[in-house]
Amino acid sequence: MDESSPHLDSLSPQRFPVVVVGAGPAGLTVGNILRAAGLGCLVLETESREFIERRPRAGVLEEWAVRGLERRGLARNLLERAGLHTACEFRFDGERYRFSYQELTGSHHWVYPQPLLVTDLVREYADVRGGAVRFGVRDVRLHGLDGDRPSVSYVCPETGRREVVSCDFVAGCDGARGVTRAALAPERARVARHDYGIGWLALLAEAPPSADCVLFGCHPDGFAGQMPRSPEVTRYYLQCPPGDDPDDWPHERVWAQLRRRLGAAGAAPLTEGRLVEKRVLDMHDYVTEPMVFGRLFLAGDAAHLVAPIAAKGMNLALHDAFLLGDALVARLAGGDGSGLAGYSGACLRRVWDYQEFSQWLSELYHGTAAGDPFRAGTTLARLRRLFSSPAAAAAFAEQYLGTADRY
């Protein structure tokens, strides 16, 4: 970050009440909330519109997140096209155990791939609500965040000139490697990090799901998961060493391990298909506290990362965006700054709760493969308890669905 005064190559600096850095779910949701209130906003994105609308990412949405989008007029396509999931299935000790969380709680999950949500949000923001957006910008810099006249500058891809945008607030929604996160860490905030010491081979297969729900295979050889994305495409995960080379996982090895780790009595055989994506994710989490510095407010992965173990990342990004968008509207339209003052604390309560659940769930997924008979035994005890204790089942369902009333 460069907080010094920018070199003004642009003849007349622009002004917007809010500059949003990053056009992912968080940034576009904040932008849409501002535009719905009639407030000016500029979204800056280093990638092209085509790229962000195709970038493969998460797909599981909790019901509260969908209802939040719906209340803001951002869920029409989602409600028409998303899959509704009411149960998941654990496979361990060669058996299948179905966990019907809708029967237990009345709540469910939605499955809607992030590229589709981003496509909906950017169309609503730019094409319907007339929001300003610049794609393909380079060398974004933040200036004067600790004063009352912040600004953001960037290099225009068409002209090569540095443009300057003055604003009242900056929303940092540009992810883990973005410039806004660097503005808070490490000298201005505490960054807490946790490494799980495992990797997941993330796979996208051109194949229909082999079951009607999410599958969790807890196997001595390592975890395996199936996450349906559409009737034609399925996301799979395989536990592997961190830093493993995806090229060491050819088609035959992948499907052999998936069959082994997801195998169970009475289970239908896996439907194989072409693997269109293979990448290794090193499982880690981080949380930045506070999520605010001066006029900069972080949201989504710019502030915190939760490993895909519990499928919470996109939900946390939307939670941040709802709170930040509403707080900015209250401040800019009505002079009420209480929402911005309490923003970081309100976000972090949910963030830490989801991080704790991710850690707990990691042991459930990976404990049987730890090479430690004691851990394997306690993990199997936890798994069996989910299906023998109503109290344990209710506690798991509450966290799995994000339905705790304290939110």
Quaternary class: single chain
Helix content: 25-40%
Number of strand segments: 21
Sheet-strand content, in percent, reads 25-35%
Instruction: Quote the average pLDDT.
Output: 93
Side-by-side strand order of the widest sheet = 7-6-15-16-17-14-18-21
Total helical elements:
13
Please give the radius of gyration in angstroms. Answer: 22 Å
Which regions have little confidence, pLDDT < 50, spanning 5+ residues?
1-11
Largest sheet: 8 strands, mixed
Shape: globular
What would you call the structural class?
alpha/beta
For the terminal residues, how far apart are their CA atoms?
A: 33 Å
Secondary structure elements and their pairing?
Layout: E1 14-15, E2 18-21, H1 25-36, E3 41-45, H2 49-52, E4 60-62, H3 63-71, H4 76-81, E5 83-85, E6 88-92, E7 95-99, H5 101-105, E8 109-111, H6 114-128, E9 132-135, E10 138-143, E11 151-155, E12 162-166, E13 169-172, H7 179-182, E14 190-206, E15 214-217, E16 224-228, E17 234-240, H8 251-261, E18 274-289, E19 292-293, E20 296-298, E21 304-305, H9 313-334, H10 338-341, H11 343-366, H12 373-386, H13 390-401
Helix pairs in contact: 1-6, 1-9, 9-11, 11-12
GO molecular function: 4-hydroxybenzoate 3-monooxygenase activity
Domain FAD-binding: 16-357
EC number: 1.14.13.2
